[in-house]
Recover the amino acids of this structure.
């Protein structure tokens, strides 16, 4: 996917005739200048105010947001990219629509004119968008199918606030009160899952959902609905040979990489030693992209470093390759990372990602990066552990449930990446769980007793790990 970051924010008053506060929305945008250092936009009309911080990628000079239709009655701000904007634009032009820019975001306004809220289901890409229909006094918010782009909401007395980061809502006046269940979920998973937020008065618009809000005389009408479902696309399970599936996968990945090359500014690739980013480089080479600029971060601790593998890929495809070794003083970066996260996030790869982004920024403005390959192709060791657990379950319970765990608990602790003692302890703790629950357990951070020891007296700490894992378990059940 493209590593592109802009930011949107806004306010909708829920009573007809009340004016939205442009100064509030400007303050919300000011806290995320880092997301869009190139430009800003602000629209205040009747009950709504829309704000935008832009990182200019497509139509650098003409794509300033908000962007609208011919008469300005539909206005859009969007964080992200619409990868099928070209065919949508052609179809809309054939119907008589006139465009003022080459921006993919302008397509959204014209498509909405034709199809209303159903237009969201036609969009392919990563996006969080806000659209104001002045004729209907209607605000439409939408988030892409997999929730790549964030969108936070807060309902305050008489208004709805929204923004690309949780701290936008704080700048808009939301009280920073911690949600105990969200904290519990974070300690379980390492992140705060949607639709919750770490702040009690805020929530995330879930992936593949839209929200329609319309002010009224005595308060507005608000509805949230799902516009797309992965489960609905998982029903058709065709029988194909392994070679046919390999060909289809290669074709799909090549098309995806080609669609992500939409940029009017220099573009590069985050290159690790994995198949994800290596495949992106290979397809870019096949598509004739020149030069291919690649960026890699390494570590002094060899078990964490994949520099040698990245060099092999860079050499194979003749890329313009850049490297940086992260030193132990990287911990000094944590306060800055915490500020920019806005919510708790316990992925240690954020540190090298920060450094590789700083490295890449010297040469390019956009990068492609490999995400999702392990999830789609069962690459994590937890998938192999599931098969081993089926055999482990045949052991007498006295051995598998008592003797082996007792031995494993006595293994010395290693601080190497994914060490044997860590994997062994995690495995035996989840070996007897049902398949989906076991897989999720192996991906969690903390057990119940560890979390309980961390909580201050009277905190409560949510409603248990089961509650934290339930949403993902329901998704597993729907798909498998």
């Amino acid at each position: 996917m493209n590593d592109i970051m802009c930011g949107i924010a806004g306010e909708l008053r829920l009573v007809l005739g009340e004016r939205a506060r442009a100064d509030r929305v400007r303050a919300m945008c000011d806290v995320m200048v880092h997301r869009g250092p190139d430009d800003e936009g602000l629209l205040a009309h009747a009950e709504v105010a829309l704000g935008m911080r832009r990182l200019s990628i497509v139509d650098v000079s003409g794509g300033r947001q908000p962007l609208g239709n011919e008469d300005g009655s539909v206005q859009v701000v969007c964080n992200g990219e619409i990868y099928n904007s070209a065919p949508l634009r052609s179809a809309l032009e054939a119907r008589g629509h006139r465009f003022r820019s080459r921006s993919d975001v302008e397509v959204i306004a014209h498509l909405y004119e034709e199809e209303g809220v159903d237009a969201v289901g036609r969009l392919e890409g990563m996006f969080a968008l806000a659209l104001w229909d002045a004729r209907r006094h209607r605000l439409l918010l939408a988030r892409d199918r997999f929730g790549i782009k964030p969108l936070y909401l807060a309902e305050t007395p008489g208004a709805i606030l929204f923004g690309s980061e949780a701290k936008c809502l704080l700048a808009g006046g939301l009280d920073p009160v911690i949600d105990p269940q969200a904290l519990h979920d974070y300690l379980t998973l390492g992140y705060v899952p949607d639709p919750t937020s770490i702040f009690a008065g805020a929530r995330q618009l879930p992936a593949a959902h839209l929200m329609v809000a319309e002010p009224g005389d005595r308060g507005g009408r608000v509805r949230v609905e799902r516009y797309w479902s992965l489960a609905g696309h998982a029903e058709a399970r065709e029988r194909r040979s392994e070679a046919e599936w390999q060909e289809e996968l290669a074709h799909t990945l090549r098309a995806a990489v080609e669609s992500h090359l939409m940029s009017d500014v220099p573009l590069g690739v985050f290159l690790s030693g994995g198949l994800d980013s290596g495949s992106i480089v290979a397809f870019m080479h096949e598509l004739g992209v020149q030069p291919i600029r690649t960026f890699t971060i390494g570590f002094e601790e060899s078990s964490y470093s994949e520099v040698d593998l990245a060099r092999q890929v860079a050499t194979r495809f003749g890329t313009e390759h850049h490297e940086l070794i992260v030193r132990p003083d990287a911990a000094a970066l944590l306060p800055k990372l915490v500020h920019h996260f806005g919510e708790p996030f316990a992925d240690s790869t954020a540190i090298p990602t920060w450094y590789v982004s700083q490295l890449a920024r010297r040469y390019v403005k956009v990068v492609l990066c490999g995400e999702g390959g392990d999830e789609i192709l069962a690459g994590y060791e937890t998938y192999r552990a599931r098969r081993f657990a089926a055999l482990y379950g045949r052991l007498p319970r006295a051995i598998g449930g008592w003797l082996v765990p007792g031995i494993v608990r006595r293994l010395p602790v290693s601080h190497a990446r994914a060490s044997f003692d860590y994997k062994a302890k995690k495995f035996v703790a989840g070996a007897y769980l049902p398949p989906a629950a076991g897989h999720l357990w192996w991906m969690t951070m903390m057990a119940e007793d560890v979390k309980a020891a961390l909580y201050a007296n009277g905190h409560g700490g949510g409603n248990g790990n089961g509650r934290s894992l339930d949403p993902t378990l329901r998704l597993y059940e729907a798909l498998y």
In short: Residues 201 and 473 are 26 Å apart (CA to CA).
